[in-house]
Specification:
two-stranded antiparallel sheet; seven-stranded antiparallel sheet; about 210 residues
């Protein structure tokens, strides 16, 4: 029986990730304003896609984007029981990936995009779609939702673990997400600002 709070696949705005980490065009941001513990989707083990894939977790009236890994390499995790991630297994008890709760990011809905398994199969191929399907089957099993909620509580409120040092700074990330949203709003205002052309007829959009 699947939990009523069904998880689905989402992708995250990669420019937000760059902003939070201080990567790419944001590499001049002050060190005390960025968090390099935020999961980078350019890791060596991401074999199938450049998309930043994960699920949305509702926790204490906030929404978090938790990244999913699909690399099949569990050596980094050392099979330790920890609140910082949830190891995912398929129907044959084969390791399929991990849900990185220690890398969960507080978000608003404008920064994520829903993807059906058909969408993923069409854009990323059947093999990747099957990996995502196996992960969703595991995460939507009846007892996993409560496990995830408990682990989120432990992560956010600083429970000790071997992987505590790999957690994101949730308060800093939340502040920076708000700053990024405000930046997007300002850019949208600039794009939609009326601008008279040389002939004086009509208006055009100003691009930042």
């Amino acid at each position: 029986m699947k939990h009523k709070n069904k998880y689905s696949i989402y992708t995250l705005d990669i420019e937000l990730v760059n902003f939070l980490r201080g990567d790419g065009k944001y590499n001049n941001r002050p060190l005390n304003e960025i968090d390099k513990q935020i999961y980078s989707h350019f890791g060596q083990n991401r074999q199938y896609t450049d998309k930043y894939i994960g699920i949305i977790i509702e926790f204490q009236s906030k929404f978090y984007f938790a990244p999913l890994t699909h690399d099949g390499n569990k050596s980094w995790y050392k099979r330790q029981k920890t609140c910082d991630f949830e190891m995912i297994y398929d129907a044959f008890d084969k390791y399929a990936g991990s849900l990185l709760l220690c890398k969960a990011l507080p978000l608003t809905s404008q920064l994520v995009k829903y993807h059906s398994l058909k969408d993923i199969a069409r854009t990323e191929g059947q093999q990747y779609s099957k990996l995502c399907e196996a992960e969703l089957d595991y995460l939507n099993s009846s007892d996993i939702h409560d496990v995830i909620q408990t682990k989120m509580l432990d992560c956010i409120y600083g429970k000790e673990s071997l992987y505590k040092k790999f957690r994101v700074n949730y308060q800093l990330v939340e502040k920076n997400v708000k700053e990024y949203n405000e930046m997007l709003k300002q850019q949208e205002l600039l794009i939609n600002k009326p601008h008279n052309n040389e002939s004086g007829n009509g208006s055009s959009k100003v691009l930042s």
